[in-house]
Amino acid sequence: MKIGIFTEYFPRTDDLEVKGGAEASAFNEANYLSKKHQIIVITSYERGTKKKDRINNIKVLRCGRSREYVQAGSFIDRLSYMKAAYDTGKKEKFDIIVAYNFITYPIVWKLSQKLKIPCVARYHDVWIGEWIRNVGLKGITGEILERYTLSRDFDRIIAVSNYTREKLEKFVSPHKIDLVPNIVEVPPIKVDKFKNPTLCCVSRLVEYKRVDDLIKAVSILKNDIPNINCIIIGTGPREEYLKKLVKKFDLEENIKFYGFVKSHLDVLKAIKASDIFCQPSSVEGFGIVLVESMRLGVPFIASNISPLIEASQNKGGLFFQLKNYSELAEKIKFLLKDNEKYNQLSKEGIRFSNMYKGEKIASKLEKIYYKLIE
Q: Cα 195–302–249 angle (5° rounding)?
């Protein structure tokens, strides 16, 4: 098959320099499918990249005006990319085209009408009615685009979780929806653990990720565990606010901001070297990094939201009540002190995460795509 993958952002190399789950999903699935099929990725042109590129067996076409990564807003740049992606895509002879986020869904649907080929939306989460709450007034564009998207007649919508599928069923016929989880794999990694008890959080620094709850939990933990450390990997509009919060609680020696870590391998090494992975988020579609921590044998403590419970199936970690940072602190303290429970969670996390191996997921996608082009 000749498969077109449309994603707003895509890594520059196979080091997987990504800032979000949709980009990681697009790369991993393109990488595995490219072993048997011709894959062309159409994505944004970012400063310092090539317009025409190749990563492993993947052909990458970067189009539109030069731009930086954004999660919301940037309306003109996004329109520029959408038009350029459509113009680029209509020159190709695809068998099927797949979109990976709310900006690319309308592009792929329009192209499918012009090229008379099947189109698929790879769906991570439904935010209808939630856009403004999650990202502020900039989310109005997202709300409009997503409502438009789900009123279109896609040949297939492939949800990453049951949680997402159930939300989709409010707007789309269940017969049009398939469930295929994300690929989650990590290479063998050997690193020494950090000297002091260390927590790790990998997250966009936006309000709904609730990294401030983790900072408040560390301020409580410091009373009993003075040498507790926490590393926060990621960037976003809340970065300065969070740094001020760290200063307010006198945690500069305990909490370090790593910013954007270019190499995904280095991110995984940081998780592996830590004792506990923390994910206090209120909004997720799946939880790729949570499963990566399981695969690395690092127990997690996460908010008890449906997508994270589903992704882990209650294996490999503990859950706390969303927004209850006191309970988060209690669970961290418990896990740092109970070696038997810690080792149990570490082992079961490794075992369970095998279900997200790339060959298995790629095979499921391949079968869906073949059926659509028959």
A: 60
In a domain, 161, yes or no: yes
For residue 175, the domain's CATH number is: 3.40.50.2000
Q: How many domains does the chain have?
A: 2
- What is the Cα–Cα distance from 181 to 160, expressed in whole angstroms? 4
Residue 181 vs residues 102, 285, 286, 291, 293: alpha-carbon distances, Å = 18, 10, 8, 11, 17
Closest CA to 234 of 198, 216, 261, 213: 261
pLDDT in tens, 6-23: 999 998 887 777 667 788
- Cα 82 to Cα 43: distance, rounded to the nearest angstrom: 9
CA dist., res. 92 & res. 5, Å (int)? 12
Domain annotation covers residue 191: no
Digit-coded pLDDT (tens) for 59-102: 999 998 887 766 555 678 888 899 999 999 999 999 999 999 98
**Per the confidence metrics, is the pTM higher than 0.70?**
yes
For helices 105-115 and 139-149, the axis angle rounded to 10 degrees is 30
Token pair for 295: 């695969």
Residues 105 and 124: their CA atoms lie apart, in Å, by: 12
On whether residue 192 sits in a domain, the answer given is no
Q: How far, in Å, CA of 67 to CA of 272, rounded?
A: 33
